[in-house]
Design a protein that fits this description.
The structure is a single chain. By secondary structure, the chain is of the alpha+beta class. It has a five-stranded antiparallel beta sheet with strand order 3-4-5-6-11. Strands 7-8-9-10 form a four-stranded antiparallel beta sheet, with no helix packed on it. A hairpin with a 5-residue loop joins strand 12 and strand 13. Helix 3 packs parallel to helix 6 and helix 4 packs antiparallel against helix 6. The longest helix has 31 residues. The radius of gyration is 37 Å and the shape is elongated. The N and C termini lie far apart (74 Å). The relative contact order is 0.09.
Length: 357
Amino acid sequence: MSSQDIPEENVPAERATDEDAHGQGAVAVADETNPFADPGLPPHEHRIQDIDERAAKRSERAVAFLFTLSMLATVAFIASYVAIPNDRSIFVFPIGHISALNFALGLTLGVALFSIGAGAVHWARTLMSDVEIADERHAISAEPEVKAKVLADFKQGAKESALGRRKLVRNTMFGALALFPLSGVMLLRDLGPLPGTKLRHTLWSKGKLLVNMNTNEPLRPSDVAVGSLTFAKPEGLEEHDEDFQKEIAKAALMIVRLQPDNIKDKQELDWSYQGIVAFSKICTHVGCPVSLYEQQTHHALCPCHQSTFDLSDGARVIFGPAGHPLPQLRIGVNDEGYLEALSDFEVPVGPAFWERG
């Protein structure tokens, strides 16, 4: 709707005087000293909200709805974070199976952010003043008169924003902005609680059989040849288990058979069986799987950052960034002749962590 279509009596008084105050429509004539004419500003066209209070109320309710939607989405974000287990998955077409928690957090956080932004944009485009203002360029350093003008413009802008008059918009905006930071506060929950003893224990315990990772069969001493490298997992842990990846990341074993005379460390010899030693497969640097073995030197190499461990001397670190030896698992043989664990690892497996004593 253009200004020509608006009856003069419906044009707000402050809007009608704005054109005169800001010199709209005034042009400069080109001459020899100023060859470029100033086209001036086109006549201002009023919005429907400027002349129809019912339209302004509709815009006000739309802005309030968006801010309220942001508040509800923030509350949903917090509720999702608390209520949805982090191991639950859902099917979302066409993405497929994804984490229910991640989907809920992303959706609610996105709605909360979008609603605040959309509400602010709609407020500015429909309710705040949109009168075009022409201003001359000025020096970088502000004069007292300029500072006074800026302050006056700020007060005028605050007045024209109708923040004091549009209480519904103001209150819902404050509510949305006050609630939204709680999303970030809730994320601080990931800094705690402390892991407790979860990082200190694995599935290994007294009597657990050593199961070959390739054949899925329990191991006998005769299955492990001198100089060979075998990978094992605890009895009862299957690949289709929901927590398989989490548990195997702590319980994976690297089994090597040495000549007992070649074992230099007394504790390693005591915890072995006929030269068969079982060490954690998880590198103590950043948790990569140690998988390269050199039978002549009895050295195991982590392919990620080349940490090297001497498996004949307590798996001590002889090269690389790893901070401590690979933990050893005490093993023996049960009555049926199968290799079994005699306890859990005596020290935590994998990289060091700040709580480790």
